Amino acid sequence: MDLYRSVRAIASASGTGDGSGGIDWDAVATAAKSATDAGTLELSPDDRAGYAADVRDARERLRSVGGLDFEVPETIEVQNRHHWIDANVSAFRRVMRPVESELQVAFPNATRVINTGSMTFVLSFLGSHVLGQYDPLLLADGDASGPGDDVSASEASSGSRVEDPQHSLYFVHPNIVAAADALDVDYPRFRRWIAFHEVAHAAEFGAAPWLSEHLESRMEDGLETLTKGEFDREAFHDLDVAMTAVEGYAEMLMDRAFDAEYADLRAKLDERRRGGGPLARLARRLLGLGLKRRQYERGARFFRTVADRRGVAAAAAVWERPENLPTSAELDDPGQWLKRVDP
């Protein structure tokens, strides 16, 4: 960790190559990594085999329990924190592109430094807390293939990454090890549970080829109106409802499919989502992570009710077409959704 280098990178933010742009993304990457301990990425043979087996077993269990047909990325990428930051700078840049030109006001240089510092904080904080990530960015462009048996450990010295043109599956190894230790739970079992959670997201996007494009279109609609100084309440409402379904279904499915005891893991991870010190709680609030937690909880209640009444396979009807997504009212009254969709 080099805080001086981080501050220097932010202070020298210059935008894109021609000096334009509301955020200097190269400076964001440099500053975020300088402010974040990369963590160790020394994987033993058991670690490598464990990650591969966890993902492979999760795929088979989730297919069986959920009644879904899907694949996982051919290569599983086990990262340190710096690799996760590198992987997500481009994703954040893509999301911010519609509004970035509007981020420059009367004092563009000062504004660029502030914006760059803000994004640095976001990526540094998340890079120290994210345990795993399923990235479905290009999933709608084609069918992914591959058994998910290959594990790649990114090399910290070179920053090299292995990319799948369809979708990606990341595990931030030092964060998983640290979280298991902090929660006082068995590391292999905790790692396996995280794998089930991320593969559950692969199951959703694999079962619904339309889902990635649906989420992106809602986000783009909302961001486009923000550039005009307006707020598209409907677009952001639709996005919130869809993400509540995504998070809630994954929570329900991973719990039903997990092949070991998980009650203690669920309780401790839920506490972790709510907890932390005062600064961590403030950061979570500023980053909207409280909203994400509410999405987990609200969506999980909906899908657990559906699964209890009609079975886990019936809950998968939500991914058959966009019209089957629950409305906000249906999320709070699953009976309405069951009556309308009749899975």
Automatic annotation (TrEMBL):
Domain of life of the source: Archaea
Per the UniProt record, one Pfam family is Zincin_2
**InterPro entries (alphabetical):** CHP03883_F420-assoc (IPR022454), Zinicin_2 (IPR018766), Zinicin_2_N (IPR042271)
| Keywords in alphabetical order | Hydrolase
Q: Which GO terms describe its molecular function?
A: hydrolase activity
Q: Which Gene3D superfamilies match?
A: Zincin-like metallopeptidase, N-terminal domain
Stretches for region Disordered: 323-343
Under which name does UniProt file this protein?
Putative hydrolase/uncharacterized protein, coenzyme F420 biosynthesis associated
